[in-house]
Design goal:
Elements (H helix, E strand, L loop, with lengths): L2 H15 L16 H12 L3 H14 L4 E3 L2 E4 L2 E3 L18 E2 L1 H11 L1 H5 L1
Antiparallel strand pairs: 1-2, 2-3, 3-4
Bound molecules: iron/sulfur cluster.
Length: about 120
């Protein structure tokens, strides 16, 4: 399967099943303001796993630089599991990972879609 076809399949999967489609909320997905990012990530949390994985794969494949995709914040080309609000982190959040490596994210995509990746 060539990359263009794969991207079309990923996009269709997102459009047909993604929890964000139809919400009308695009602002929360394209900002790095911590409360809005949290809203976007909550929506992603309710997204079916197939669409969420497709969304993350789409972002990684296309080199997405901005926005919340598959529950991950991409900003300036870097990836983050979460956006820390300003100020000192809460004690229960201080040890949680913030930055995500692209390798980790690809591993996650491969775990979630092993059959499709080997086809
Ligand atoms: S993972 Fe998030 S951004 Fe991607 S389709 Fe699902 S709800 Fe939308």
């Amino acid at each position: 399967m060539n990359q263009k076809t794969r991207l079309e399949i990923l996009r269709q999967t997102m459009e047909q099943n993604g929890a964000c489609y139809g919400t009308g909320d695009t602002q929360s997905f394209f900002t790095n303001e911590s409360k809005a990012v949290r809203v976007a990530q909550l929506i992603c949390g309710s997204c079916p796993m197939q669409a969420r994985s497709a969304c993350l794969e789409y972002a990684l494949t296309t080199g997405m630089e901005y926005g919340v995709w598959g529950g991950i914040l991409f900003w300036d080309g870097d990836a983050y599991y979460r956006k820390r609000p300003p100020g000192r982190p809460r004690a229960d959040e201080a040890s949680l990972p913030v930055e995500a490596s692209k390798e980790e994210l690809w591993d996650l995509v491969h775990k979630l879609t092993p059959m499709e990746k080997s086809a």
